[in-house]
Design a protein that fits this description.
By secondary structure, the protein is mainly beta. It folds into 3 domains: 1-92, no CATH class; 97-214, Sandwich (Immunoglobulin-like), CATH 2.60.40.1530; 228-307, Immunoglobulin-like, CATH 2.60.40. The chain has strands at 2-4, 21-23, 33-34, 41-42, 97-102, 112-120, 126-133, 139-141, 146-148, 154-158, 161-168, 173-182, 191-199, 207-214, 228-230, 235-237, 252-259, 274-276, 282-291, 301-307. Strands 5, 6, 8, 9 and 12 form a 5-stranded antiparallel sheet that branches. A hairpin with a 6-residue loop joins strand 3 and strand 4. It starts with a strand and ends in a 14-residue tail after the last strand.
Length: 321
Amino acid sequence: DNLIQDTGDNACGLDSQNIYALVGVDPKLGPLTDFGGPGRQLFPLLIDSPAIDGSRDNVNCTLTDQRGAPRPVDADLPYKEGVMCDYGTYEIGYNPTLSKQVDNPTPLPGQTITFTLIVANTELTVTNGLISDTLPAGLNFVGPITLEPAGVGNAGAAPPTLASGLTISNGQRITVTFPVTVSYGLAAGTLLTNSVAISGTRFPTPVQAAVAITVSNAPPAADAGPPQTANPGDPVTLDGSGSSDLNGDALTYQWTQTGGPAVSLSDATAVKPVFTAPGGPAVLTFTLTVTDSVGAVSTPAVTAVNVTNYTVYLPLAVRGP
């Protein structure tokens, strides 16, 4: 089978009377495109190319075209019966391209990020398209799912179905976006890969794409506890147990006295150190910093202890008559 745009001597002696040749016909090819290195640089067929389903029979039809794409593919032409190979080394098919992006590839635990999927179709019209996405553990859907442009199909309510009933014409591009949150407690450096696939009527195999995010480290947050009031000589316990780390890292503690008469802490690196209040009125201040397992240090947190005098109540003496 041959399709030759030239005529006469440039057509190798073939003419349109030859049942295995189309001569003097514009093949309607796209620009030279690299489909994967040497031997895969081809001129793709345009959607209205006469080469589509042009073969009279499939006797010499290879199982794949020069790119490795399967053939034959039925273009469902109204004037062509049966499934026939396209002329040449390129078999047009139902092959939309799919890409996936994320607005923040290095989020912190608890942050919201948004995925964007882009489907572009340069070949045969995709019908009954389905876009599916199963989120990995560590990513939590918050919605909604947005599908653009309107009228191409139905946006899903939640993963795994992002969109269904899609009709994507030649030259059309659709976009799907949806937000998720990153789980708390994920260690810094955790890699989360999110994959998506589109399938449809007559797809040989689903088209897939993926994007990865890496969880960043969040500095810990110190909490030195609320202000306290104590009497002279009382035991006082400072409390840093409200300190936290979004990544779930183990914390180390460092208490420092920054004001008032010096007191001795039972353990300046304990979560809840204890000291004895001084013997007279005073205001004692302390700071707490915490450090996570990768060395990130919190902003200091401050607390105060107000030491007051005892109040002595004397009995009321009543003088009789």
